[in-house]
Amino acid sequence: MSNRLYIPTLHLAKYRFDQDIVKVIPEHMSRQYKVIALSRMGTTLTVAMADPLNIFALDDLRVVTGCDVDIVLSPEEEIERAIQTQYSAAPKGMEEILKDDQTLAPGAEKGDVELLRDEELELSSALKESEKPTIVKLVDLMLTEALTKRASDIHIEPEIDGLRVRYRIDGALHEVIRIPKRNQNAIIARLKIISNLNITENRVPLDGRFKVRFEGKEVDFRVSSLPTTFGQKFVLRLLDKGNLSIGLDKLGFSEQPMRIFKEAVTKPFGMILVTGPTGSGKSTTLYSVLNQLNTVERNIVTIEDPVEYQLEGITQIAVRADIGLTFASALRSVLRQSPDVIMVGEIRDSETADIAIKASLTGQLFLSTLHTNDSLTSVTRLVDMGVEPFLVASSLVMVCAQRLCRRICPKCKKVIEVNADYLKGIGFPLDEKVVFYKADGCKYCGNTGFYGRIAILEAILIDDRLREMIMRRQSLDDIKKYALDTLGMKLLRDDAFLKVKNGMTTIDEALRITTEE
Hints:
single chain, 7-stranded mixed sheet
């Protein structure tokens, strides 16, 4: 289209928008015509459009803006993402706070430090407490907004001209607000105070945590700071304990992998491995298992880096490599404490792998995670770490791979037709009639088209034949073929396609999270 119409193209991902220019086009018109303003020179307004042949849109834009309209071409999804980011760039409360006080002090008052030393902060009344200093109100609002919007992380990033705040919602980052540079030190000081961090230390990474009560429930925040060129970057991870007590049944697993998982956790000893990239929900799954196993009769110990969720009735150890408390040394000590169930946050090296394997053979149920692309690769990864194949074969009970798939928004999803040849090309089973959905985005889902996430699981129980194949060092392809043909293992993509069949997600999302298959 660009070649035929002699219209240049522009990718918007790294384009720096000017809020004053963007707001020249009203939000409702921008969303209706899939158009966003880029720049203005005199009476000429340059806009990015997905459909430059829409003459009604061009006429309306000329009338509303009073400018001649110049067009560049951009993909529709990039325009929608830019509209979402720019028009909802900041909750009104934050913008108003910044406008109200243009001369904010670079630090917090002494009275606030006393208040913040308390373990809990009350967020629900943050808006009413007008007597609080402006910075305190701004940070409280930032936390409240993140909780309201179901964010999993808050990124606070210093840049050359200000402080950028982004929320990670359903796995994707969304820019929320840009705070003036003069407020940077005050915001960072406030975050350090509530996280019990050293306010004067700016040169090295720091870790802290704090707890808030929001709408009657407690939420932990894990805080990590990193020194960067323009100041300290903070990432706050929201850890909602409510997600852990729901048990395995409510995690959204399909029937077949769910049955395998339940059978594995009833074993008295052995190793259960959950694999997947960072942020795929491995820890949440393991914590849910621990909650289910957490009874008075069991001694459960976890070794983590760092401790994410604090669980009652479970002994939790935070790794500290700087003083020699590594996964391996902690695990050795734990084995002398008569544990029944051990969870290690991650098997990172051969020493930890070796001790873990031997622990699982001596009567403990051992849970851990590995960074591999699929479930069976974890077998070869352990052997590559130097663990003898016969030990791997004897200790493993179950291996599984996990991903998080975005759930389609129930409010704005609509039925679409998908070409049969395309489905055949991607290997989608055509044995029954399937209704496919797509979501355009609405107020309920923040115009993303998705609301929440569900787990995709690939699980396999290790049987005697598989153990024999591992001991004989047979190739991964042979092991996988046996698992698929004889044991009926369902791959990640099979489980993702099942979620599509059930109307839980889109075909594009299923392909996005299982690309390595």
